Amino acid sequence: MPKTKWHLRLQKPAAISTVGYKRDQEIQELTSEGRRCAMAQMQVELHPDAKGFGPEVQAILQQLSPSQIAYFNALYEKRRKEPFATFYLSLLGFDRFYLQQHALGFLKLLTGGGFGLWWLADIGTFQERTRAVNEQIALEVARQVKDLVDPNAPPPVMTGRKDNLLLAVLAAVAFFLLAFAVALMVR
């Protein structure tokens, strides 16, 4: 007799958990359906840089769903290059490394900035060069998002702006080098 009661106790929780599992599955289906509807109605603004991109990038961005645009914005923001950093690094001669142009960076260092002429030209064109690199990054990111991210995926969790410690250090170094150069000229 005790075996039967014990056996019945085991069966009841199994039946309850099956019902609970089915209910959880139904709730999950309803919430994922609700997410899909919400994603279809969601409006997401493109990154401000997107207005200046060429037709190839624009064509891909037009095909993305709001969820994919949110992923594009998050990934592009992490990978894009800052014109401010390019300017300060060009003062020091390291801008080509920052823009992933390593061979030109070594050549620039070996020739002393093209005997100063290349250095001057890079300072004058830092914005255009940064924009061109950012457009290439945007093209890569847009292709990846289009191919890999489900149009109905929930939007990524936004963590805020990346840490700008490197940028602050570079600005401080450039300021001190500039102050040192001015002090030498005054003497």
Give the helix proportion (percent range). over 70%
Mean pLDDT: 76
**Strand share of the residues?**
under 5%
- Specify the structural class: mainly alpha
Low-confidence stretches: 1-19, 30-40
User: Between the first and last Cα atoms, what is the distance in angstroms?
Assistant: 106 Å
Tally of helical segments: 10
SSE topology string? HHHHHHHHHH
Largest sheet: none
Task: Evaluate the radius of gyration.
Answer: 28 Å
Number of domains: 1
Protein described:
By secondary structure, the protein is mostly helical. It has one domain.
In terms of topology, how is this protein built?
Elements: H1 2-41, H2 55-62, H3 66-79, H4 83-92, H5 95-98, H6 102-110, H7 112-115, H8 117-124, H9 126-148, H10 165-186
Keywords:
mainly alpha; elongated
Summarize the structure.
76% of the residues lie in helices and 0% in strands. By secondary structure, the chain is mainly α.
